[in-house]
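We close this part of the discussion by returning to an individual protein. The amino acid sequence and the backbone structure tokens for this protein are reproduced below:
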Amino acid sequence: MMNDPILLASDTVLFGSGIAELVADKLQKGCVLGYRHRDFCGMAMKMDEKNQFIYGELYDGIDFSVPMVFKNRELFVTWLSEQSTASLARLDDDDFYRANQVITRQRLLEFIKG
């Protein structure tokens, strides 16, 4: 599920509060935004047992590695609203992680609808 880094880099439009609020709603319902397969599953989002929002690398569909933790909805929504496909594409990372199963506008919209 590698994406074209050049295409991802060109999408710099911020997600905005509308998308961020809808993603937060879905996460608060217990949904997880992440692929579920063996090994590295890309970047994912969920809520943890402390009702904190989590963003980070997902492994084997269940294990988060060194996630960013947002203590409340407001912090998460503020952060996500200021992101874009380009900012979350990991374009400065090693070849394996660059554009590999990252959070994009398309993934967020599919998550909200699904």
Residues 5-113 form one domain. The longest helix spans residues 16-28. The beta strands are 40-47, 53-59, 63-70. The radius of gyration is 13 Å.
